[in-house]
Amino acid sequence: MKKVIFLLFIFVLNFSSAQNSGLKIVEKPINYSPERIRLSLEYLQDHHGLIQKTPTIVPKMIVLHYTAGGTVESNFKYFNNTHLESARNTLKKQSTLNVSSQYIIDRDGTVYQLMEPNQFARHTIGLNYCAIGVENIGSKSQPLTDKQVEANAQLVRYLTQKYKIEYLIGHSEYGVFRNSKLWKESDPKYFTGKEDPGKEFMNKVRQKVSDLKLKDKP
Ligand SMILES: [Zn+2]
To answer: Which of 55, 85, 163, 212 is exposed most, by the fewest CB atoms within 10 A?
Structure first.
C-alpha cells in the first residue's frame, strides 16, 4: 500500500501545470532554422526597433487568429517554410520572413505547440515582439467550434500563469493599439485590415477567462 501511495505521489509530481488544468499540449515544432533566426532578428530590429541577440520575446499579450482554411497539417507545412511565399507581396516588401504562430488549435480542440511560447513569430504587425499568436483551424464560413473555445481559454489560462500576460485580443482588434506605447512598427503605413477570429468567438473565450481580467485595449 505504501508503495502505491509513493508511486501515486511521483505520478502527481510529474504532471505539469498545463496537464493539471486538463490542457494537453502536443509538441509539433516547426523548423526554426538559422535563416529563420537571422530573419527574425532582422525583423525585430527593422520593424520593432529592437536589437537582440536571440529571437525571443517577453510575452505581454495573446492574439487569437483563425487560419481561413486548411488543416493542421497544411498550415504546419505552410508555417514550416522560412521564407514567405512569393504571392504575399505586401508582406514581402517588409521582410521575407514567413508568418507563423506559437500555437495552432485544431477543430477538435487539440493544441499544437509549434515553437516555444517566448520565441519570436511573425503574426501581428506592430506587436509581434510582445505577443503570443494562437491560430485556430477555421474561417468565416467555417466558424470555430466550442471545443476550440474551451481549448483557447485553457491555453490563455496556462500562458497567463507562465508569463505576465496583460492583454487578450483577436487579430481584428489589433488596430486599437496603433497609437499606443505598445505599438512598435517603424513603417507607419504597414497595416492590414483583419477580421479573424471574429467577435462571437472572442466573446465566448473572454467569458471563460473573465476572472483573469485581461485587457482588450491599451
Ligand atoms: Zn490573423
So the answer is: 85
